Amino acid sequence: MNAPELTTIRSAPKVLLHDHLDGGLRPETVLELAEQCGYDELPATTASELAQWFRTAADSGSLELYLETFAHTVAVMQTPEGLARVARECAEDLADDNVVYAEIRFAPEQHLEQGLSLDEVVEHVLEGFRAGESAARVAGREIRIGCLLTAMRHAARSREIAELAVRFRDRGVVGFDIAGAEAGNPPSRHLDAFEYMRDANAHFTIHAGEAFGLPSIHEAIAFCGADRLGHGVRIVDDIDVAGQGGAELGRLANYVRDMRIPLELCPSSNVQTGAVAALSDHPFGLLADLRFRVTVNTDNRLMSDTSMSREMAALVETFGYGWTDLERFTINAMKSAFIPFDERLALIDDVIKPGYAVLIG
């Protein structure tokens, strides 16, 4: 069996659960949209310089400073044309990386500056995703995009965004999320939104355990009832690793593992925001060994200058994973997607397993 390398990893089918629409723009698109809408505050004037600026600015070691880079991308995503274009290109770029299923999230409340309504924002993004899926199909690639609507945890519109997610759930929206700086903004502040989602039998994930520790994860699960954890990397704080390689799990870590609560881990981003010091220190390897339901994700492809293939290649280099490991992480993600069971199973049996069988040999 040949060890996975970046070139061959690109040919493997992939599933992406945690990717922000406003964190994955093409640098040249940012420049063109900025010119079209009259936004003159970009920190660079060429695509290569802008790409480098985003990567350098995001390498801050702080989630709060990392989030400041989004002011520029959100600023150029305020028109119907801008929203649809960014969504279309997102689908095309992921398909080019052989992502066969992706859930892309964004916060509609951040795209109202030019007078669009929340419903109009969602409609234009979904239009872009459908156009991107069609373009990928013409190019010989199949991808399915589900949309997650995100509420900002420091704001007060989470119930409104939850209702929006339910209103559009038969039109391409598959779930709800909250995001933003964790410290001082616990998920329990948004209980009414999560109770609404549960009452509607709708899915949701919560950014928790990224920059803040176990209390954030505990609230997301015990109080809010999250289906998945966005990042969840700090669950490692409830695991005591013994000197002989053994590990003792605390009650919260045991619950997360026993209940198969998916962890939307984003290795490169976690290093950039200071959630972990270096990729070699990332608990992904430990959590995978302990059979948590770990998944591989990009978080923000522009800010991290990454792709699903690059994230997988980095994990292979760091932890020595082979094709069967990458297949397991991909199936973990597909099992955890917010689409019906039979549709998840079809993608696993008809696309993911056959794709890896060729690579495993």
Task: Explain what the structure shows.
By secondary structure, this protein is an alpha/beta fold. The chain has one domain (6-360): Metal-dependent hydrolases (TIM Barrel, Alpha-Beta Barrel), CATH 3.20.20.140. The protein is 48% helix and 14% strand. It contains 17 helices and ten strands. The protein has helices spanning 6-9, 27-37, 47-58, 63-68, 70-75, 80-96, 118-138, 158-167, 191-199, 214-223, 251-258, 267-272, 284-289, 301-304, 308-319, 323-335, 341-360; strands at residues 14-20, 99-106, 144-152, 173-179, 205-208, 228-231, 239-241, 247-249, 263-265, 294-296. The strands form three sheets. The chain has a four-stranded parallel sheet, with helices on both faces. The termini are close together. The relative contact order is 0.15. The mean pLDDT is 95.
Mean of residue pLDDT values: 95
Relevant CATH superfamily: Metal-dependent hydrolases
Number of domains: 1
Uncertain runs: none
Radius of gyration: 19 Å
What portion of residues belong to β-strands?
5-15%
Classified by CATH, the class is: Alpha Beta
CATH topology name, in short, is TIM Barrel
Q: What is the strand tally? A: 10
DSSP helical segment count? 17
Task: Give the neighbour order of strands across the main sheet.
Answer: 1-2-3-4
Which structural class is indicated by helix and strand composition? alpha/beta
Order of helices and strands: HEHHHHHEHEHEHEHEEEHEHHEHHHH
Shape: globular
